[in-house]
């Protein structure tokens, strides 16, 4: 591909294919924008559509620019691309004025809240209906979800709980030692695990492992129109898909929370052992200072964490838009929504327990 | 249509290829040439291995035996840079379009240009706009794949396959799932691109109307025979073939 010299005329010769056009593009466009230029095409041996786009863009770039002498082997491509470029450009999307945008955003947000309330109501109706007719609950489905959300999460929960106990005990033993108060480490770690950290960390595990899985699974099902197919078959997706998952979430969370707490206490006992306190001292300290109500309070709120995480995961999945990105968005929404909801719920329970004196 | 001047040069050569999964042989000893500038159709009933043959030609599914040569390069014996050079010289339109869902149609077409050329962003946008214009989608350029119809998806798939102006385009089932009018529009577009750009097309399809409208030459695969049962101009095959399966196919009879 070469460019010949002549005043006001650029003579092109050789093959003008994609690679050549990419090299030539900046030079030719600079010339074309500068002043009236005639492009002489007589020497071209081949032209592809990218090359033709370059020639036609250059022609349109300046007033008085022209193409001349196109040999027959390139006229077909040139004419075809000329027609293609002549088609109208897409209309730029009209931007709404600021006020209208604020309005639309708040309308959408409001609709989202209403949808959420509707979802809770629908779920409650289905749950009540199932209470009246318990044989309609799909037991097999519930068991499958209990296994997937529960037993399969045990290794991770044990590991995380143990490490959490080790870290908490180690971090508190060092400052408390300065006052000779290491003996109170079991109280500190025990209370925080039983009442707060056990349910919260188990909730984070459930949101990350299971909430996202629910959103991805149900999201893919709605993208593939499987949810619509269920509705048209007269099967309520709430009863078939959502209820077993939510039930599994409610049942599995206290167990995960307990497993995590026990593993944490074991980790704490290990650290105490390393600092010279025998196991009996640790258990004595725990039984003396901890009450059953501490544990039951933690497990009770864990049920609500499980309900929130599973319901938010299912809702994100069923509300997924179209395309592969929608499924990813739904999974993200499930994890973020799940974690935020358990922290909010935890705050509510703190106030509630304070009021009733647990 | 069939009067298109076709030079005798073969751009694709398949020699004695066989394919299958495990002990299930789909076809064996398939040999044919695709010549420069023609629209070559691979046809046959469901399950005869048409799509597998296409995937084997573009280097996705390995053949059990035989050799595929595209533009004098052995598809299954090249690696690294030589293979990349070969891939830049073929374009594929996938059966479902396979457009990237998070990008607009224009960005989909720009992607190969961004990867393989030194064009600036503004130049890329202009080139991509021209390719979308070639397939009649100028006005939908800023839409996402999920916002356009099935026929438009296939056109956009062709535009993306055309991004680097490859001399050979492979189309997998262009008319599958389309209504007859949209399908005919797509056929007209294929003929038009073949005539004006001189691109060689390899089209896998079982749509009779489409085969007769676009095909310069075809081969027909058959599940029972596990191989090619007919080769030639589809219009002549319809009139003259005596092979019972070929006759049944072209006359839409139950075999």
Number of helices of chain A: 12
- If you consult CATH, what is the topology of the largest domain in chain B? Rossmann fold
Number of DSSP E strands of chain B:
10
Structural class of chain A: alpha/beta
- The tally of domains of chain A stands at 2
| Radius of gyration of chain A, whole Å | 34 Å
Task: Explain how this protein is built.
The complex is a heterodimer of chains A (358) and B (255). Chain A has a four-stranded mixed sheet with strand order 1-2-3-4. Chain A has helices at residues 18-34, 49-61, 72-86, 98-132, 139-149, 154-177, 185-223, 226-232, 237-274, 279-289, 292-318, 324-356; strands spanning 2-4, 9-16, 38-47, 66-68. Chain A has 358 residues and is of the alpha/beta class. In chain B, strand 9 (217-222) and strand 10 form a beta hairpin. The interface between A and B is large, with 37 and 34 residues.
């Amino acid at each position: 591909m070469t460019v010949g010299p002549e005043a006001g005329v650029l003579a092109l010769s050789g093959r003008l294919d994609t690679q050549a056009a990419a090299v030539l593009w900046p030079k030719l466009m600079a010339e074309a924008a500068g002043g009236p230029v005639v492009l002489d095409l007589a020497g071209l041996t081949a032209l592809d559509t990218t090359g033709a786009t370059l020639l036609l863009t250059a022609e349109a770039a300046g007033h008085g620019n022209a193409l001349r002498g196109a040999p027959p082997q390139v006229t077909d491509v040139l004419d075809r691309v000329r027609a293609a470029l002549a088609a109208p450009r897409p209309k730029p999307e009209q931007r709404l004025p600021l006020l209208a945008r604020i309005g639309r955003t708040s309308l959408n947000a409001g609709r989202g809240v209403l949808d959420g309330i509707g979802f809770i109501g629908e779920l409650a109706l289905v749950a009540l209906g199932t209470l009246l007719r318990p044989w309609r609950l799909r037991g097999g489905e519930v068991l499958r979800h209990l296994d997937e959300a529960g037993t399969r999460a045990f290794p991770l929960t044990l590991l995380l709980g143990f490490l959490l106990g080790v870290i908490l005990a180690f971090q508190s033993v060092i400052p408390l030692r300065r006052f000779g108060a290491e003996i109170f480490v079991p109280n500190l770690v025990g209370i925080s695990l039983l009442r707060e950290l056990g349910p919260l960390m188990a909730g984070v595990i459930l949101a990350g492992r299971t909430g996202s899985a629910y959103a991805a699974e149900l999201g893919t099902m709605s993208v593939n129109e499987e949810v619509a197919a269920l509705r048209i078959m007269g099967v309520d997706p709430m009863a078939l898909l959502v209820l077993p998952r939510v039930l599994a979430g409610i049942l599995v969370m206290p167990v995960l929370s307990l497993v995590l707490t026990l593993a944490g206490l074991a980790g704490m006992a290990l650290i105490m052992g390393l600092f010279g306190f025998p196991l009996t001292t640790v258990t004595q300290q725990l039984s003396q200072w901890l009450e059953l109500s501490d544990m039951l309070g933690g497990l009770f709120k864990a049920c609500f964490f499980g309900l929130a995480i599973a319901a938010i995961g299912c809702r994100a999945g069923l509300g997924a838009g179209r395309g592969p990105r929608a499924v990813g968005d739904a999974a993200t929404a499930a994890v973020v929504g799940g974690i935020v909801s358990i922290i909010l719920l935890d705050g509510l329970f703190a106030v509630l327990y304070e009021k009733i004196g647990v | 249509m069939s009067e298109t001047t076709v030079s005798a040069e073969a751009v694709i050569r398949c020699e004695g290829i066989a394919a299958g999964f495990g002990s299930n042989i789909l076809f064996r000893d398939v040999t044919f040439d695709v010549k420069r500038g023609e629209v070559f159709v691979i046809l046959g009933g469901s399950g005869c291995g048409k799509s597998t043959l296409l995937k084997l030609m573009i280097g996705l599914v390995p053949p059990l035996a035989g050799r595929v040569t595209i533009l004098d390069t052995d598809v299954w014996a090249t690696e690294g840079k030589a293979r990349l050079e070969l891939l830049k010289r073929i374009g594929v339109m996938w059966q479902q379009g396979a457009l990237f869902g998070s990008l607009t149609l224009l960005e989909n077409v720009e992607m190969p240009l961004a990867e393989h050329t030194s064009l600036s962003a503004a130049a890329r946008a202009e080139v991509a706009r021209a390719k979308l214009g070639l397939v009649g989608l100028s006005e939908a350029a800023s839409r996402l794949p999920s916002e356009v119809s099935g026929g438009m998806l296939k056109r956009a798939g062709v535009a993306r396959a055309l991004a680097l102006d490859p001399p050979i385009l492979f189309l997998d089932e262009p008319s599958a799932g389309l209504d007859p009018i949209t399908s005919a529009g797509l056929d007209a577009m294929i003929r038009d691109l073949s005539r004006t750009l001189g691109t060689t097309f390899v089209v896998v399809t079982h749509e009779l109307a489409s085969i007769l409208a676009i095909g310069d030459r075809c081969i027909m695969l058959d599940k029972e025979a596990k191989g090619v049962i007919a080769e030639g101009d589809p219009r002549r095959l319809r009139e003259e073939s005596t092979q019972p399966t070929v006759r049944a196919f072209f006359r839409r009879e139950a075999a």
